[in-house]
Design a protein that fits this description.
With 127 residues, this protein is α+β, with helices and mostly antiparallel strands. 17% of the residues lie in helices and 35% in strands. It has a three-stranded antiparallel β-sheet with strand order 1-4-5, covered by helices on one side. A two-stranded antiparallel ribbon has the order 2-3. Pfam families: Flavin_Reduct.
């Protein structure tokens, strides 16, 4: 079972948020995975993570956010997999074009504290 503070908070509160951040915020993604409240560290303060007043689980700067109600916890070795029902969605309209396609460069984790993003080129097929 995971011993991080977030694990206990999700189990106790029954809700969690999933935030999708652009590459410019990869340091926050990395830091959120490294720091734990158990060590006396307030991740939000340390990483300067602001939330939206109307949605306290949604991070400012996220191009997409899901608020979820915990439905299932599945042990997967030394961690638990949380599965939730999406109860709310927030998105930054500036991160999408007029067709609703993402234009913000997403932070994509490669491993070993390394992040990349997608290429800006697009190819449309079948139109």
């Amino acid at each position: 079972m995971d011993k991080r503070a977030t694990h206990a908070l999700i189990r106790a509160g029954g809700t969690f948020g999933v935030n999708f951040l652009p590459l410019a915020h990869a340091d926050a993604v990395q830091g959120a995975g490294l720091h734990s409240l158990h060590g006396g560290v307030d991740k939000h303060a340390l990483l300067k993570l602001d939330t939206l007043p109307e949605q306290p689980l949604a991070l400012r700067g996220a191009y997409l956010h899901y608020t979820c109600r915990l439905s299932t916890v599945t042990p997967t070795g030394d961690h638990d997999l949380f599965v939730g029902e999406v109860t709310g969605v927030h998105f930054d309209p500036d991160a999408y074009d007029d067709a609703g396609l993402l234009v913000a460069p997403p932070a994509i984790y490669l491993g070993r504290s390394t992040y990349t993003t997608t290429a800006p080129e697009r190819t449309e097929h079948g139109r």
